[in-house]
Amino acid sequence: MDGEELTEQETALYDRQIRVWGADAQRRLSKAHILVYGLKGTVAEFCKNIVLAGVGSLTLVDDRVATEESLAANFLIPPDENVYGGKTLAELCCDSLKDFNPMVRVLVEKGDLLSFGVDFYSKFDVVVVCCSSLATKKLINAKCRKLSKRLAFYAVDCKDSCGEIFVDLQLHRYSKKKLEETIECELNYPSFEEAISVPWRTLPRRASKVYFAMRVLERFEEADGCKPGEISADDLPSVLKLKKELCESQSLSESHIPDGLLERLVTNGREFPPVCAIIGGILGQEVIKAISGKGDPLKNFFFFDAMDGKGVIEDVSSSNTGS
Amino acid sequence: MASLHQFSVIKGSKVLMVGAGGIGCELLKTLALSGFQDIHIIDMDTIEVSNLNRQFLFRQSHVGQSKARVARDAVLKFRPEISITPYHANVKDPNFDVDFYKQFNVVLNGLDNLDARRHVNRLCLAADVPLVESGTTGFLGQVTVHVKGKTECYECQPKPAPKTYPVCTITSTPSKFVHCIVWAKELLFAKLFGDKNQENDLNVRSGDAASSSNHVEDVFERRNDEDIDQYGRRIYDHVFGYNIEMALSNEETWKNRNRPKPIYIRDSLHDEPTQQNGNVEKNGGTNDPSSVSAMASLGMKNPQDIWSLKENSKIFLEALKLFFLKREKEVGNLTFDKDDQLAVEFVTAAANIRASSFGIPLHSLFEAKGIAGNIVHAVATTNAIIAGLIVIEAIKVLQNDTKRYRMTYCLEHPSRKMLLMPVEPFEPNKSCYVCSETPLLLEINTHRSKLSEIIEKIVKPKLGMSAPIIMHGAEVLYETGDDLDEDLLASYAAVVDKVLSELNSPITGGSMLTVSDLYQELRCSINIKHREEFDEEKEPDGMVLSGWSQASVENDGNKSVDHNAGSTSESLTVETGKDSEEEIVPGKKRKLYEVSEDVTPSDAQEVRANKKLEVLDEDDDIVMLDGEDFGISKKKIQSQQP
């Protein structure tokens, strides 16, 4: 790849990771621009990873003010009200992240993500949204897809012991090493809307239960009009009712969405820090793969549940079902 | 998961973390966020620039400071109410004894070397404290749980030995770049700049010297009338020219190999003036010897470039000259250090010139440095994931949730759709000399060998005991310690120097020795079996220990050169589907077998009789584990991409 060589300072700082992904990938990283929305614990983990990796810039969007709950799994915010009082989550996280790596620009963008136009998105190579409503995920993903340039879209969520990552790289070309050779590969991703429209009964019998549970919660929040994460134990009966309806309409056995799993997610929707670290770590790795164009990226969902300890990839796209 | 019960378990616990590096920084952060309130952390290291890309609790301004202390201060900024006790000390320090370990509910390891891992394992066993062990290399990692009596201990399985190479491969028949690096670092660099009295396998005789039998001259001695440029050129011609010619004269060696090509300075630098090479003055700006660089004097900047033979030759001469001009005081007692720029330049150039001779592809300084320094590939993301998994496992241990303990592998390529793969832990190995009381067997010639040989060849290196006490029946034959009086030390010295069968109470076939370590509370028995002869090639120690597990080492000669003795890999034995053996430690842990989804358990059982099937949950997820012949076969996890 052409472009400037890494500086001596960069080579010294990034020595250990250049040994993992190569100088070429490091150069691409240093030119990549990332946008994140929803600064909870999982995204804080992701931001740390990507700033350490040495991306070009990271832009944070989250106008909410800090509350005790928002501090729970977020190590970027000091718990002193004198410090966090009055500042937005994005501003607070920005202050900490800048410190991690002076070679990365960390910025705050104020305003409502949904109102930003296509021009705004065109400045970025990667967009990550966290803890967003069904409508937000669909809309932002659609905006990313309208651009003439290719933009990687990720949606993440952590609840209780579970975490989910959705990936849309559109048409992704990359290289990977197979034995001694480097081979070129291509993957075609569905949008979020397309992916979740895939009929449940066509998914593999052993598809992750977390996938279905997250879709039930998403639909419940949409129907109920409550904000993501505001769901509580009182909602459990309604959630279980919705699950039954969805399973019936999708011809899926109800045993695929255990009540116990939904109960955990509903009654304890808070992030669990070890899961934030795991999901933020996998997401960081995936974004590095997408930017560098090296190595198989995951397609197109990843799930982790601390209860069974498995970190599973599910391909939920119409072209790939029934196989 | 985050139930109230669990929260109280976390709050009331006291945990010990060993290591505040790549995994340690992530682990301390995640422990603090998860509600742990009493954390002790040991690390003897100070912060370096190459740590900053992943050890996120550290900043440029912290370089040189204690990792344990800086990590504590950084975490207290976002969790000021918790207690973190740092120790800037070696975990093998006698203060960290069994009583120290007993105060903790669980010990969490984020270490980078086998020696310390073994030490902590033994103390955890002695103190009966559960241990969660971890390791990462690049995108690979693993977390394992070791609870005395319930799961295997860290040493129940063979561990990879440091990679070694037969001497003849290094001195005469290199076939890979790493062989050239080992030659440049362990032989040439050591000969020129290290201790002159150390044994070295480099040919030091010149043609003239060999012919006059009463005068053996070491060509590496600088002659009185010789200036440094002449000296460098003479060394160059000797090691890359003359020595290769000598090797070529042995036709037998080259029957089935490509013949190397001798390289002389007049050929590789033919269009250069004979005297002037680099501009030493470009280094004149500073007097700091550690910043001296041959690349700087020659105006070369990019460590990623692969130099030509001519450039390598120039660097070779320039680096040699700079050592003698700018760092003369150190010459004679230098050892290779990956952070010593000039040393890395010299070794890179020398290895590349040798590689040219043998038709081996050349490498950049960056790559050569990684190979020569055994630098571990490390990224923040893997460490973060592994730290998350450690905390999850630690919570299960605190809850005493034995049934749900898992070892988890973090993979680079998915296996059966999994990037994070949990596996049920193994039961303790009944013949493990560390966690069971099974005696070891030592075959030895009791009429010839001395106790000192047992100590140096077996007890210290193989059993990993640094302060051993050896007993024969009730008699103490040997012990170490600071508080022993001189008479006692003298009597021990006399005992260890005697042949075994000539001791006051002779050690012969059928004797049993008891060996323990002052600081590890590990005691094991060694049964002695007398044997007259040993194969010099296959049994170079002149004694054979069995019942002790170490992975077999790829080694076809009797003598070998340690490549990474005291290796500082952050890795454990990582399972992968990778095809490259070079980067992954050899002699792996028990293999995990993949059973493709359409194989039913009964089929699978037929395929591999004698193996144990583990069904992890109600799904038909089957992970088959190799129960018996661990570490021998080399099956890999097969990647299955949908």
Automatic annotation (TrEMBL), chain A:
This is Ubiquitin-like 1-activating enzyme E1A. Coiled coil: none annotated. Its main location: nucleus. The lineage of its organism: Eukaryota, Viridiplantae, Streptophyta, Embryophyta, Tracheophyta. GO terms for molecular function: SUMO activating enzyme activity. Heterodimer of SAE1A or SAE1B and SAE2. The complex binds SUMO proteins via SAE2. GO terms for biological process: protein sumoylation. PANTHER family: SUMO-ACTIVATING ENZYME SUBUNIT 1, UBIQUITIN-ACTIVATING ENZYME E1.
From TrEMBL, chain B:
Residues 312-369 form the Ubiquitin-activating enzyme SCCH domain. Keywords: ATP-binding, Metal-binding, Nucleotide-binding, Nucleus, Transferase, Ubl conjugation pathway, Zinc. It comes from Parasponia andersonii (Sponia andersonii). It comes from the Eukaryota. Residues 10-432 form the THIF-type NAD/FAD binding fold domain. This is SUMO-activating enzyme subunit. SUPFAM superfamilies: Activating enzymes of the ubiquitin-like proteins. Belongs to the ubiquitin-activating E1 family. GO terms for molecular function: ATP binding; metal ion binding; SUMO activating enzyme activity; transferase activity.
